Amino acid sequence: MTEPAAHPRTERVDFRATSDPALHESADRGEASLLDYRQLYALWERQQWSVQDLDFSQDRRDWHERFDADERAARMYGLSSFFIGEQRVAVELGPIMRAVPDEDMRVFLCTQIADEARHVMFFDRFYSEVGILEADGLEDRLEQTSKHLNPEFNTFFDEQLHARVDRLAVEPEDTETLVEAITIYHMVAEGMLALTGQHFIIDYNERVGTLPGFVEGFTNVARDEHRHVAFGARFLRDMARRDPRYGDAIQRALAEVLPAADGVLRPKWVPAGEEGTAFYGVSVSDSRAFALQALQRRLKVIGLAAAA
Length: 308
Hints:
By secondary structure, the protein is mainly alpha-helical. The chain has a single domain (about 10-25, about 35-300), classed as Ribonucleotide Reductase, subunit A (Orthogonal Bundle), CATH 1.10.620.20. It has helices at about 15, 35-45, 55-65, 70-100, 105-130, 140-145, 150-170, 175-210, 210-240, 245-265, 285-300. Helix 2 (about 35-45) runs parallel beside helix 5 (about 105-130) and helix 4 runs parallel beside helix 7 (about 150-170). The longest helix has about 35 residues, at about 175-210. The chain is globular, with a radius of gyration of 18 Å.
């Protein structure tokens, strides 16, 4: 199994500065020094980057001259879940931001909304300048790329996460639902699904020497995600220490959504219950093991039993 802390990229000072427990082996013992909300905001100021600075000229040549039709289709599957996923989570953050009980939390989540919008624009510019789809504008590209998703993606984002966010929009004082929403959003959507896919996709492109502009931008996206997950770990640890019922809410949310999340990690062409590999050569079981180890480290730091 690939260890989350063993890769040179996740050993980088700027990645480890986020305090995401998954990047630190000490988290296996439940030990971690989590940044507080104001420190996370200050880190956001120091870790700025611009989508407009990326150069996709080599990426365009790779896509149209180096990849055949089968490889483009396989890569499209992996990219689609990120493009649509970034758009989904950007929309869902508003009610979560308004519901958190502390102003420092709220200020940090405002920075995350800006990050998620930047991630959408990163994918939109990549798709547009590389010429991945024959589409006109962001909405058309989102609609076309959504056809490459598997059913579990819609279950996870459009039903399970969205149900909590809808409730918070109406009852922002429902703190148990807030804890469930942040568990699903930060621990699973970002911490398991996004960061697992980012790790293996970036690693593959670096090894084969493809899509350098994409790799540069996607590495910046991954660093942002680690900072967001660090917020989630801090918030959930604070809430679990405040009242045991919030720890129960974390476990309840995980029990509900992990089966769908597991389906999102499985490529569309691999039947449920069968082993298979993604286009970057990583098996379903290795991808799952990577995601679960990262979740287990974060749960130990939060003070809860590891997920099965």
